[in-house]
Amino acid sequence: MKKVHVFLFLLLATVAPIRANAFWSLSSTSDQYENCTNSDYSKAHPDKCPGFLGTTSISILSGAAILGGTIALIGMSNTDTTPYASQTATSPINQTTHPTLPTNNYDMVGGDIDSINLASVTSTPEYSRNFNQYNEIRLGYSLARGYTGHGSTIAILDAGMDSWHGATVASIASGPIAPNAIVKSYKIANNMNFVSYHEIGNTIASAHDANIFNASWSVPMRANDLRSRQQLINLTDKNFTDQLSNAAARDAIFVWAAGNDSDIQSSALSAIPVVMPEMRGHFVNVVAWDTQTGKLADYSNACGITSNWCITAPGTKLDTGTAIATGTSFATPIVSAAIAVIREAFPYMTAPEITRLLFETARDLGEPGIDAIYGHGMLDLERATRPVGAPLIPLAGTNIMQPLQSARISGAIAHNIKNTNPQFAYFDKYGRAFNTDLSNIISVKNRGIGLQRLRQDHNTQSVNLGNLELGMMAGDIIVGDGLLQTNANNLFTFIGAHGELEINNKIKLFHHTRISFGKPTPAQNSMINNFSNIYTSSLNIGAQIGDITFGLGIPDTIVYGDMNLHLPIGRATTGAITYKDYNIDMRMRPSLEYFVSYKSFSAGFVDNPYGRDEVYILTHGRIVF
Fold it and tell me: pTM of the full predicted structure?
């Protein structure tokens, strides 16, 4: 009989707690439940005993028996506890789908945000109430970039909007971090008594439109005591674990409070991914930071074994306008709102990509790297909403990424591209699209007229028919590299006319005119899609007096033609890269070349209207052996 008796005791200790019997974790005798003069009861009932609160920070822990202890809402308060009237906060607005950052500042903190814009979003009353806490997560930068959580639905699994705790958690989730996220309250506790885990599973299933679940409650059992999936099912309910899995399968993310027990390990529920591998990438554990002390809040559990999916957020003295709240309960909706911001900015990212991004961009705290206290470190919305890693660009016509290289192109072409001001998107290591102006990565590549003059005889094949000239030449009027690379040898066909006139056998006047046409080709991985036929003209006039020649020239100048750019401009919500074609008019203002030569020496000055002016000095010679 002893063995049977022991078996029944263990069964009651692990299975019976699933029921909804409730007790106050701060109380030990029944008469404390109804007496507001009792400090423990008053601490546990800020909604019923508001007069006790004053300005003193107190604990509120309540819940139902579970996992061998209590399931508890975790938080602290010290101001007005007026409940919020509405269960849903929503005022969605249209935001840009693709973030915009200048490429040359992609690795700078806030390089795209000017101080005036930043000041405008951080000086609002909503921001100012928690100025130091919001500055810890660098909220101002995500707001200045235009992200407000639009398009996400956050399900608050809590005590409902008619309770202080549930209303405060929902208020933080719908606050200035993601004011345009839809926040819905789901009641899983009645009068602070939790429903069964089976019912909580049904609640999760009913929130089918939610892509973020906020759970600001914990259990006394420690994360390192959770050993297996079956143990979790035995201690909770199979419907609960099934609905967690189902929500993860539809790409939802669960954000869980670590608990307020000042323990080195988080609550056992924060270790769900240990025994449910499908939750990895869909789960974030949150510990609380104390902005005043600059370290983990003294009440907060540490990450412990959950460090690989644990992050830190401010949780001390958060002002909602109607309450000041302290606890991991309130650090958790800060992270939930931050996830809504990322989902809005990058709607094509999956939950595992979002959580990986959240962790990688967190600012390191404590020991270098991931640690058992702070996990990945402090949530950082500035880093999470700017590119990570070197910028990438897709290979022409594919989704294969290559490093983005700046482009150098001949001055006139660069000028025409900048006049059109085409936009394009580059991508970071997560495949997130960031828009910028093509002008930002273009620099002028001078054609090098002096070099052309030096090798002029070597890039032209022609025949003369009297004063007419017919031939072909390797045209380098369109020279580009990097993103706008062209093939090196583009052939142009030309027809020319030349003539001379002697005056008194002392002065020889001359002219040389060419009109040419060709169709340049872009390099394989160039963002140039194609060229139309390009027509150019050139002119040289001058005079020769003895061994001295001087003159004025107009080097090859494009008089007609177009270039088509096929540029990536972002990602659709499905993740597909989207492109846009830009047609660039290639006509250009001519350069002016002034030249003089004496015997085998030549010198010239080129006045380039777009690029740098050029000066060249050449000599031609021949050595005969």
Answer: 0.78
